[in-house]
């Protein structure tokens, strides 16, 4: 099982040429890293994709804009 930093998901959102829905982001991330991937942040470990999104939404690092998931640059750390 791989461990991936949440910044990879945030960068995927920032670099996207077309916006992601939550479902399309889940599919793209799991296709890239595999179904068993776990994510970590500066303060959290061993998160599933859904747990990661819950965390990022709670910290307003991502927001839902209509049906799209958008990275909030103002709330992202830069390391």
Automatic annotation (TrEMBL):
User: Pfam families from the xrefs?
Assistant: DUF2492
Give the taxonomic lineage as stored in the record. Bacteria, Pseudomonadati, Pseudomonadota, Gammaproteobacteria, Vibrionales
**What is the name attached to this protein's record?**
Metal-binding protein
């Amino acid at each position: 099982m791989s461990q991936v930093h949440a910044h990879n998901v945030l960068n995927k959102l920032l670099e996207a040429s077309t916006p992601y829905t939550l479902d399309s982001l889940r599919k793209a991330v799991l296709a890239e890293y595999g179904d068993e991937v776990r994510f970590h942040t500066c303060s959290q470990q061993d998160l599933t994709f859904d747990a990661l999104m819950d965390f990022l939404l709670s910290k307003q690092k991502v927001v839902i804009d209509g049906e799209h998931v958008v990275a909030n640059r103002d709330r992202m750390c830069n390391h």
